[in-house]
Amino acid sequence: MPAALKSIGFIVTPVLHPTRGDMKRILVEFEDSIEPGDIVLFYFAVHGTQWEDQNYLLPKHILKIDGVNLNRSAINAQNVLNTLSDRDPFVTIFLLDCCRNYHKRNTEIYARGDSSDSKSADFKPMDKTRSLIAFACASGTIVMDGQGQRNGLFTKHILEHTTTPNEDISLMLRDVRQKVVEASNLQQIPF
């Protein structure tokens, strides 16, 4: 993905297996580099989870998923989107190729479903004006890793379109969604 993005003019700062400190440092540097009117693309392909109504980007070392640990050890994805968008870019493209396993604070309170119930009334989609947000999978689900492949299904199919000149990104993501759904036999549905 970094090579494909560089080839179409994006400035790329790849970070492999980041700690939370790495993630915070890179995000501050990224935020500071944004000028009003820029096209901003944030791409994250590591690990993620959904805790109640929030999506979190997970660093490599997080061991336990609970609300307290996530606030101390992970990065809230909506906060990242808000911060980047507050720099007044032309558009923010936010691509998350990570799982969205769903966790609730106290599963005993929610006796009607288990802790991975993806149809929770608590789910609140991410949004921000002048943003395009795409998840590799729907809320409460996991991504297919693309066994034996360099990339997961979502990234694999995005890469098929990334260097195509003048391709409408909304149409591209619609094609990517369809290809991921087909390749995963309905097991992964991008959102």
TrEMBL record:
UniProt record, GO biological process: proteolysis
Peptidase C14 caspase domain segment(s): 3-190
SUPFAM superfamilies: Caspase-like
Domain of life according to the entry: Eukaryota
InterPro entries xref list: Caspase-like_dom_sf (IPR029030), Caspase-related_regulators (IPR052039), Pept_C14_caspase (IPR011600)
PANTHER family for the chain: MUCOSA ASSOCIATED LYMPHOID TISSUE LYMPHOMA TRANSLOCATION PROTEIN 1/PARACASPASE, MUCOSA-ASSOCIATED LYMPHOID TISSUE LYMPHOMA TRANSLOCATION PROTEIN 1
Protein name per UniProt: Peptidase C14 caspase domain-containing protein
